[in-house]
Amino acid sequence: MLVNEAVGTRQVDVDQIRLSLQARYDELSSEYDDAVEQSQVLRLVEVGDTAGDDQADSGTKTAERDTAQSLLRTILDRRAQYEHALNRLAEGTYGRCEGCTEPIPVERLEIYPSATTCVSCKQTRERRAA
């Protein structure tokens, strides 16, 4: 299955899609590196600044740490989605729904380039998960 058939594009467009996906993957990698660095700085500050902490201070620090970890997980998840999209593009399956194998509408891919399912299959998955 060629990506050209799936999303109705020419090779020039496929190259543009690849560049766009790679650029977003690289941005997410940079965001992740920055978030890891900020998380490490936060930990160093916590270690050096625990004298006189009461329960509220400890709770605030725990909440900040949890938020930082959540951000890291979110960035990693998004980066994995773009990595998967790049792999699908290389395999020639990008633009085809992983559920029904029908083409994913170009409009959906423009809004959500790492989409792996058509709207119908996505809705079915969400209903089952609820």
Characterise the protein shown here.
- This protein has helices spanning 3-7, 11-48, 55-91, 106-111, 119-129.
- It is an all-alpha fold.
- It contains five helices and no strands.
- GO terms for molecular function: zinc ion binding.
In total, the number of strands is: 0
Biggest beta-sheet profile: none
SSE class: mainly alpha
Portion of residues in beta strands equals under 5%
**Number of helices, where a helix is a run of at least 4 consecutive DSSP H or I residues:** 5
- Percentage of residues assigned to helices: over 70%
Instruction: Give the terminus-to-terminus CA distance.
Output: 33 Å
Shape: elongated
Low-pLDDT residue spans? none
N-to-C series of helices and strands: HHHHH
> If you average the pLDDT, what whole number results?
85
Alpha-carbon Rg, integer? 20 Å
GO molecular function: zinc ion binding
Pfam families: zf-dskA_traR
Domain Zinc finger DksA/TraR C4-type: 92-127
Protein name: Zinc finger DksA/TraR C4-type domain-containing protein
Produce the secondary structure layout:
Blueprint: H1 3-7, H2 11-48, H3 55-91, H4 106-111, H5 119-129
Helix pairs in contact: 2-3
Domain Zinc finger DksA/TraR C4-type: 92-127
Pfam families: zf-dskA_traR
GO molecular function: zinc ion binding
